UniProtKB/TrEMBL annotation:
GO molecular function: isomerase activity; lyase activity
CDD domains: crotonase-like
Pfam families, A to Z: ECH_1
Organism of origin: Actinomadura decatromicini
Lineage: Bacteria, Bacillati, Actinomycetota, Actinomycetes, Streptosporangiales
Name the record gives this protein: Enoyl-CoA hydratase/isomerase family protein
Keywords: Isomerase, Lyase
A single GO BP: fatty acid beta-oxidation
UniProt xrefs under InterPro entries: ClpP/crotonase-like_dom_sf (IPR029045), Enoyl-CoA_hydra/iso (IPR001753), Enoyl-CoA_hydra_C (IPR014748)
Record carries keyword Lyase: yes
SUPFAM superfamilies: ClpP/crotonase
Similarity remark: Belongs to the enoyl-CoA hydratase/isomerase family.
Length: 346
C-alpha cells in the first residue's frame, strides 16, 4: 500500500492487523467510535473499522499510535484499604462506599468516560469477593462517576487484556458480577456502551436516567461477540432484540432500552440517585435468604438448568434460619422485621 511514494512497511501492517484481531480480548467491550474520548489513543479509531477520520495505513508514524501502551510497571496490584466505611483500591480507578447495608461500586475515571483499563477489569473480581464476604453489605450498586456509566474498555491496553478464551479479563469480571450472591443494581447515566453494557447486563437490575444511551458495538470493529456475553444478552432481551443490538451496533436511548427489557426503570436524571437509594434501602430491609435463593433459582431457570436441587437446599436453609419466625412475628406485631440471616448455615 503506497501513498505519495511512501510505502507502509509490511511488518507494521501485520502488527496493526494483529492488534485489531486482539480486540477480541475485550469480549466485545469497546467504546462506541463516535464517543470521542472512549478510545484513549492519540488520534481517531483504528483504520479500516469505519471511523470517519481514520488515517490511511501510509506511514510507520501513523500506525505507531495504534500500538497499545503497556501498563505502567509502577502501578501496584489492587489492594483493599479499609477505614470509615470507605474502601478504595490502590491506584486503580474504582472506589467503593458502604453505608446502611448497601455497597456502591463507582467506576471513577471520568476524564475517560469511565472506560475500563486492564487493571480495573482485574480489580473487580477480588473487590466483589470482599463485598460478598461482608455481612454488613446486603445489596450492591454499580455506577459511574462524572455523568457516564462506562463507555467501554480502554482500547490502548489490548495486549494487557488479551488472554485465552476462558480468562479474558472482561469476561472474568462479568462472570464474577453475575455470580455475586447478593442483589446487584446498575445505576446508569450517560453512555453505557460496549464493556459498560456488558457489566450492566451482568447486574440483576438496571435503573437509568432518561438521557442514558446504550450500545453493544462489536459489529463496528469486526469482532465476534463472545458466547457467554451473547447468551446473557439473549436471556435478558430475547433473540430478536439481542440480534438488533449486535447486528446494528447502534446506540439506543433509554426509552428503547426499557421497551426491549434492557432496563427495569427509567427516571429523570435529577431523580436517579434518590430513586436508587430508596430502592436499595428497600432491598437491604428484606430477607437476604429469600433474595439469595431467588437469585440462584431464577438464574438457573433462565439458563435452562434444573432448579429442584437448589430449591430443596434453600427450603432446608429457610427452616433452620429463623427468618420465617422473624417475618411472621414482625407481621403480627406490626413492626418492621429484623432479618439477621447473612450466609448459609454449615
Amino acid at each position: 500500500m503506497a501513498r505519495g511514494g511512501e510505502e507502509t512497511p509490511p511488518p507494521r501492517i501485520a502488527e496493526v492487523r494483529r492488534r485489531c484481531l486482539d480486540s477480541t480480548a475485550l469480549q466485545g467491550g469497546f467504546a462506541f467510535p463516535e464517543v470521542d474520548d472512549c478510545f484513549h489513543v492519540a488520534g481517531p479509531p483504528v483504520a479500516g473499522v469505519g471511523g470517519r477520520r481514520a488515517p490511511r495505513l501510509a506511514s510507520a508514524r501513523a500506525t505507531d499510535r495504534f500500538v497499545p501502551r503497556p501498563l505502567k510497571t509502577a502501578r501496584r496490584p489492587p489492594r483493599f484499604l479499609e477505614g470509615g466505611g470507605l474502601r478504595t483500591i490502590g491506584r486503580v480507578d474504582i472506589r467503593v462506599d458502604a453505608a446502611d447495608g448497601v455497597g456502591t461500586i463507582t467506576i471513577d475515571r471520568p476524564a475517560k468516560r469511565n472506560a475500563m483499563s486492564a487493571a480495573m477489569w482485574r480489580a473487580l473480581p477480588p473487590l466483589l469477593d470482599d463485598l460478598a464476604a461482608d455481612p454488613g453489605v446486603r445489596a450492591v450498586v454499580l455506577t459511574g462517576a462524572g455523568g457516564n456509566f462506562c463507555a467501554g474498555a480502554d482500547i490502548s491496553e489490548l495486549a494487557d487484556i488479551h488472554r485465552d478464551d476462558e480468562s479474558h479479563l472482561a469476561t472474568v469480571a462479568e462472570r464474577a458480577l453475575a455470580a455475586f450472591p447478593k442483589p446487584t443494581l446498575a445505576a446508569i447515566e450517560g453512555y453505557c456502551v460496549g464493556g459498560g453494557c456488558q457489566l450492566a447486563a451482568a447486574c440483576d437490575l438496571r435503573f437509568a436516567a432518561d438521557g442514558a444511551r446504550f450500545g453493544v458495538t462489536p459489529a463496528r470493529l469486526g469482532i465476534v461477540y463472545p458466547a457467554a456475553a451473547t447468551e446473557r444478552l439473549v436471556r435478558l432481551l430475547g433473540p430478536s432484540a439481542a440480534k438488533y443490538l449486535l447486528y446494528s451496533a447502534d446506540l439506543i436511548d433509554a426509552a428503547h432500552a426499557l421497551r426491549i427489557g434492557l432496563l427495569d426503570e427509567v427516571v429523570p436524571a435529577e431523580g436517579l440517585r434518590a430513586r436508587v437509594a430508596a430502592f436499595t434501602a428497600t432491598l437491604a430491609s428484606r430477607s437476604l435468604l429469600t433474595q439469595r435463593a431467588t437469585k440462584e433459582i431464577v438464574d438457573a431457570a433462565a439458563a435452562g438448568t434444573p432448579t429442584a436441587d437448589a430449591a430443596k437446599r434453600w427450603l432446608a436453609e429457610m427452616a433452620a434460619s429463623g427468618e420465617v419466625e422473624e417475618g411472621v412475628a414482625a407481621f403480627l406485631e406490626r413492626r418492621a422485621p429484623a432479618f439477621r440471616w447473612t450466609s448459609p448455615i454449615r
